């Protein structure tokens, strides 16, 4: 099977979400698309398989596309709502490995204590939960300021190109250390976790999961950054992958208890040469 024809079935089939928190993922129906063609990227604001609501254009702080010609800003007129989903329509040029990025402006949310504690536990934000326990705040409701900074990497045509590791300058960001479209299912994947452009401290919790090429959900795994601010994902089956983390900081701002910044990265891995799904 060629790269161009690799499809990821059932990507948008709904499942019951386990959290009240909303991740944001950029997804495609196929991650291997022709050159000089129209492409629709769907933003799922909820879970990896289901979107709870669309994103209003005024909330978008940055919308970028990295192609073999370099990075360019996209006008938000490329964004439209499709029910609870958000669709970004763009056009590819020359063959190569492309990156699309979206960064939202900060919003605020009031949360009950139990819901916030569960969110911290299940989204890999253990230090903040431990701090609340130490300070006797597990029963305290909070007001959170949050923003989301997400990317997807997809392959246009057969030729690969530089730019797949472009740093977009978001407050939190995930950068692969190898082109995902040069990977095979036998390869180990490695990622650098950035906070304000610098490598994250050691011990940052990072979650990874996705779907196999047959649409089977992978169990989500928890990783921790090493001294270089990097994580390693062991070899896995072909299909679609995500890597994500949340930076949570306590703040002394009046009326705001925490500031959270969410990062996700999505991409696909093709079957090994000669293999079929």
In short:
The chain is mainly beta.
List keywords for this structure.
four-stranded antiparallel β-sheet, mainly beta, about 280 residues, ten-stranded mixed β-sheet
3D structure, described in words:
The chain is built from two helices and 18 strands. Strand 4 (60-67) and strand 5 form a beta hairpin. The termini are close together. Strands 2, 4, 5, 8, 9, 10, 14, 15, 17 and 18 form a ten-stranded mixed sheet that branches. Strands 1-3-7-6 form a four-stranded antiparallel sheet, with no helix packed on it. Strands 11, 12, 13 and 16 form a four-stranded antiparallel sheet that branches. With 277 residues, it is mainly beta. Mean pLDDT is 90; it is low at 1-20.
- Gyration radius from CA atoms, angstroms: 18 Å
Q: What ranges have pLDDT less than 50 throughout 5 or more consecutive residues?
A: 1-20
User: How widely separated are the two ends?
Assistant: 9 Å
Sheet/helix structural class: mainly beta
Count, helices: 2
Oligomeric form? single chain
Shape: globular
The sequence of SSEs as H and E is: EEEEEEEEEHHEEEEEEEEE
Mean pLDDT: 90
**Estimated share of beta-strand residues:** over 45%
The level of helicity is under 10%
Number of strands: 18
Main beta sheet: strand number and arrangement? 10 strands, mixed
